Each structure stands twice: as C-alpha cells, then as structure tokens.
Amino acid sequence: MSKKLDSKVPSGDLQEKWTKHRFDMKLVNPANKRKFNVIVVGTGLGGASAAASMAEMGYNVMSFCIQDSPRRAHSIAAQGGINAAKNYPNDGDSVWRLFYDTIKGGDYRSREANVHRLAEVSTSIIDQCVAQGVPFARDYGGYLANRSFGGAQVSRTFYARGQTGQQLLIGAYQSMMRQVDKGNITMFSRREMLDLVVVDGKARGITCRNLVTGEIEQYAADAVVMATGGYGNVFYLSTNAKNSNVTAAFRCHKKGAYFANPCFTQIHPTCIPVSGDYQSKLTLMSESLRNDGRVWVPKEKGDKRHPNEIPESERDYYLERIYPSFGNLVPRDVASRQAKFRVDEGRGVGETGVAVYLDFKDAIQRLGKDAVSERYGNLFEMYEKITGDNPYEVPMRIYPAVHYTMGGLWVDYNLMSNLPGLHVIGEANFSDHGANRLGASALMQGLADGYFVLPYTIGNYLASTELNKVDTNHEEFKSSREEVTSRLDKILGVKGNKTVDEFHRELGKIMWEYVGMSRSEEGLKKALEIIPKLREEFWNNLSVPGEQNYKNSELEKAGRVADFLELGELMAKDALDRNESCGGHFREEYQTPENEATRDDENYCYVAAWERKENSGKPDWELHKEELTFENVKLATRSYK
Amino acid sequence: MAGSSKQTLKLNLKIWRQEGPNEKGHFMEHKAEDISPDMSFLEMIDVVNQQLIKKGERPIEFDHDCREGICGMCSMVINGNPHGPEKATTTCQLHMRKFKDGDSIVIEPFRAKAFPVVRDLVVDRSSFDRVIESGGYISVNTGNAQDANTLPVRKENADLAFEAATCIGCGACVAACKNASASLFVSAKLAHLNLLPQGQVEAEDRVLNMVAQMDEEGFGACTNTGACSAACPKEIKLENIAKMNSSYAKAKMKSRS
Fold this sequence. Notes:
CATH topology of the largest domain in chain B: Fumarate Reductase Iron-sulfur Protein, Chain B, domain 2
Radius of gyration of chain A: 24 Å
Oligomer: heterodimer
Shape of chain B: elongated
C-alpha cells in the first residue's frame, strides 16, 4: 500500500518558513551536546562542512571516507563556481531570483520550501568561505569578482579560476582537521561503509570495512549522516571519480530508506569522447566553449576524411540548422540529445564514430588566435594533453557524458530520510535540483546543507527523540556484521571467469543505451529484462582474486558493482513510470514535433520515492508519491525558441 | 590525429610489488602488449591488471580517484620521476603516447619514511593530514563570519595565495626530495593562509606548529635542491620555502623573547 510522505515543510509564508522553523525547533543544551555521537559518512563539501560545524557546536563526530585523506572527495573536481544571491554586481539579483531560477531550471520537480532555504543561506556560505581563507577571484580593488553562468541573467557565480570545488573543499577540510586536532572529530580514512545498523526503527550506527586491513569495524551513534555523493558511475563511464559509488546510500535503501527520483540524471554535452575500450572515465570540458565553437558533423554518413579536408558545403552545422535562434547555445539536454541523434544516424566522427566536432576555425579567423587562447587556452591545453590533438588546428571532438545525479535518498525538510535518525545531505539526497541542476548550484547545495541546515535540524532530532543507549554489542550490530561478512564471502566465493570491470562496463553500456540521454518505453522494458540477467550472471560468473583480510581493490569494486546492478534496474523502473519528459529525463514518446520536452504536470508533478522490497528472492520496489505543490511559482513550459 | 588508426605499444614493465607494510618488496617484470598510445598511464595499469586477473594472479594495488589531475590521490614514481617524466602532470594525466614502442618502464611507490607502503604502489600519506591538523587552517567557527566584502584583499596577494593553494597534497615533492622533506607542501599551505588578512592572527603559531609537526612525522630537512618544485604537478614555487624559513625564524625568535 502506498504511503503518504510527509515532507514536514513548515507552515507560513515561503520567506518566513526557515526563520520560523529555526525558532520552533528544539535545541540541545550546550553542555549536553558532547553526550551525542554523530556519524558522518563522506567528506566532500557536504560531509566535511557538516562534520566541522557539528563538532564546533560540541557534538562528538565520527567522520568516514574511502580515500586516503578526507581532502580527496570528488567535490574537489568541480570547476566552474558557486552561486550566491549576494548581488555584489548590483545587477538585480536577490534570494527570490535565485530561488525562482533554481525551481525553473529544475523543471518544476523540486520542493519550493527547500529551494527557497537554499537561496536564503547561499550568501552566508560565501562569507564563511572567505573567512576560512578560500582564495576566490578578486578584482583590482580587492573585492570579490563574479561571473555569469549557465544562462542566468545575473552574475552571481563566485569562482577560484577553474578550481572552485578544490578551494571550497580544502576550506571545509581544514575546518574539519582543526576539530580533529581539538578531539571533537575522530577521522576514519580508507573505510567503506557496507551497512547501516537500525535499532528499534532508528539509524544507530554503521558497519564498515577497513580498506587497509580488511577488518570489519562497527560504530554506534545517536544519528547517522550520509554525505556520500551521487551514483553517476552506474553508467561505468562518467565524469565522476573512480571511487564514487552508490553502495553506502544503497545499503540505507535496503534498510528501508526510500530512493527518490532515481531516473533524474544530468548529461553534460561537452566532454572529451571515449577513445577506446580501455577508457576508464570521461573528462568534462567547460560548457563555455560553445560560446565560440561551432558544432558540426559531415553531411554524408561514414565520411572518414580528415575534418580539415571536408569542405564547408559538406558540413552540417546541425544545431544552427535546427535551432536558428539559439544555435550552438541551446540548453545542455538539447545539445546532448542532438549529438546522440547524429551518431545514431551514422554521422559521428573520429575513430570510434561516437563524437561530433566542435570547431574553432571561424572564431580564430574572426577574433585571432591570441583572443581565442586568452579565453580558452587552458582548456585547449587540457584537451591536447588527453587527446594528442591541437584544437587550434584540428576541430575538437566532443560527446555528452553523465555528470550529476539529481535523484537520491528521499529526505524531508529537515534533511532526514523516512528512517528516523538517518540524515542525507548534498548530492546524495534528492531535494533541491528537481529534474535538472543548474550550473554552479551543486557546490552551493553541499555547503548549504552542511554548514547551515543540518547542524540545526539534527539538533531538533536529537533533542526531541528518545534514544536508548546502544553499543556495538547489540543484536542488530551482530547481525549486520554477519550479513556484511557473508556478502563478502559470497563475492569471493563465485570464482567465475569475468572480471568486475567487465560486468561494470556491460551494465554501463545497457544504462547508456536504454536509460541514458533519450529513453523510450520499449528501451526501458528491454533494460528491465536484461539488467536482472546480467545481475544473475554476476553472481554466477564473477572473478575476484585474493582474500578479505588486506587491501583488495577488486573486492571493493565488486561490492559496488553489485549495488549498481540493482540501482540500474530501479532507475529503469522509475524512468518507465514517469510518462513525461522533464529536465534530464527525456522520454521519446513525450516530445513536441520540434523535439522539445513535454512535461505532464497533471499526472507527474510528484517525487517518486521507491521503497525496496523482496519478491521471491528478487529485488522489487513499491512507489510512494510526494505530491509537489507550487504556491509561489507558476508552472510554465521552458522555451528556447 | 582524428580518423587515423594508431599503432599499439609493447612495453617492458618493472613494477614494485609488496604484500604489506612489514613485508619485503620486489620488482615484478611484466610485458604489456596492445597498449594504445591514447591510454592514460593508469588505464595502462588497468589493462595490465585485467591481464593479471585472467592469468589468476594478484592485480597491482595503486591509488587513484578523480583521474583528472586534481584530487591528488594518484602517486607512483615512474622511471625515477614522481608522476612520471612530463612537467606539471599527474600520473593520471600522463598518456602513453609519451612513451615509445619497446620502452622499459620502472614503476615504484612514493618512497619516504613518513609515507609507509601499504601494499604495492599504495602508500600512507596521513602524515600530511596531521600536519594540516597542527595548524593549517584559520580558526573561524561556522556562523562567525562577517560579510565577505568587508575584508578586501590586495589582488597581488590574493593571486599569490591562490597559486600556493593549488597544491593537491599528493606528496610528489616528498618523493622527489633526496631528504624526503615536506617543506614545499608545508610552505605552500603557510603561504596560502599567511598571505591573506584572515590568516594573520594565527600566522606565527601556524608556522611554529606546522614545522614542528612536519619534523615529528619524520620528514627530512630541506637542502634547497629544488627537486620538489620540479616534480610538483601544480608547479608550486620554491620561493614559498624561503618565505616559510624566514617567518619561522622570526616567530621562533619572538617565542623565545
């Protein structure tokens, strides 16, 4: 039976909700805070900022990460910037405008109250980061510089060259290490969370594997925070780091936490294309390149000539042809899909035929090489390092790649999942970006959750909940340990013939083909048929060498791929359920003759929150809906014509 | 070049293998075939690992994560150079087209007393975290901050602080140094924070504490060879060490008076 989900959004005017809620929430007495233990899994922008802030407040924090140091979390790779409604450029920005842009950008599939709160606290993030010494770009007067980003009509993006994520993460990491020094945070690096421990219906601890010794370790706490990032690596190839995975979140899902909107994935149009079967990850090239580059493919199928030998009359500048008014600057999803259509037609370029050209010849003629170099020099260099081609002389080859996942564990306004005590922040939750995330908003959300939202809301939970003393000798810890150990045994015991990477690549191909940029009922049904078969083969023919009791990367990867094999099925199921096109979710059946997405607000204006079930030993899911209501913003069709 | 098909490489690899921190290590020889020049160095190791697993052998353990040159997780000494022979390049951004067919490549872990080997090419760099813990931060609690623009920073200082802050904490500087000194890493953090007005209050304690922790972790002394800066994938400048030494001397004098 479908349950009604309570988002716990406070009553009152949108602008007053967060202020009112902060007053209404119960507080933990300063002297009592040290009596509470909080586990934070993940040390990216969300996890590091949450751990540091809660430790400063006086809580006992245990922090976990899979890398060798908390500073390496994948937030570090974010390039562009971080949005905040500071209105320093005096160009008409406001909290309301940032709120409105984010709701609209998310194609009206996010929760108004959460998004407004995000816009409200955005300004404090910049203050906090500057105080920590984050070296944002500045003008000659010494004041902070801003730039525009992703189609916004105001300049609200703060940046540190192309390394904004790195600088923000180092700021949060340093604040965290300060608390480690003070003894308020205990840091556990090279640990992988493999299970959530639930006692009396509440999240009370985790079971993890020490990745150096292989030992299974358990930790008990009064609340658990998941800050474990997104699940883009279900596609095998994505812009995510190699260690990014869904396992920690999925273990929570298996213990009862609902997974919301799993099919909302963002595909970025300008990435360096795959060059061969050995490819291990994809590298993003800033979207700004489309300001001056022209996208084209040959008019003829299978034209294998060198691009410089193909005359103008035999080139198809297809974005300019199909979208004469927006041309090469159409939104991300449109640019991505059109590239896929060209490749499907057999007009893709390069050795693999899975790429399109992004050509700067005209820009160089018009502006001169120096001007182009000034704008894009570092990107051209990076491109040359990876591909060996010089983009000043040969057109770049680009292709879309999976970049960010808007879906995640379901949370209420307090960032708590349906499982009491389990809080979820940053990319790991679903709440703020709807069906599509705007550029420079991921960093904003991670830090908003960690610095300014969770530290308050978790206090309310701890102050208003009866929490019995629980330690790792509890029965639930014992059974969790047994479950984790037997799963590792099972993985090592298959002793088949295919490696983890072979399975992961195969899953990635299925996901990309049928649950990628463009989805259809037929394709999704096919995916739902073949993913379980691949999963069955995985458990019968997997080859993982070595043992449990030392560093064993293949064993680590195998556990993650096992979870991706279930998540992939859930994503296809969610995409099939959503009979509309919105944001990053494009269903071929629901489009206008001009290939624009057709949203169905009457029937699909809801958050799809999936509860995991078992059906005769196989995974199954039940759908719960959180209806979305828009009281402050009028639903409209996005248009780029 | 787009559209042309490329010749693959055959390589003679000598790779360091070590079961654990207290075990004796050795070099394993491996002939790698069908290596595409478009592969990154880590993708080449991926391919070798797949071959080892298929042969029933233990794959090589190595650290890696973002594979786009920013997380600082990948390490390896390649033919004597931390992160390989290319200037300003991490191992993950090094591509096989920089090698020739038939080349011999020696691959070792970063070697330093303060970076003990965990397994094969994986080392423990938690000493760096402890150095940051000792003072590599500005003590400002969440919520304490004033409006960001009330504190203008001279652009020149902001740019220099930024340059120092681009350090990715990989440890190549330590691996390159004959004394295994961490001076470049520590001085980059000191330059980043001490060049900013926000960092002034704690500047003296910061340099004393971080240098003390660096020594305690077993990193060696700096003898100004500049090998660290030459190996640094982010080209952190040697002058940061000079700044550190000067501010250390001043702070030390002051703390004694």
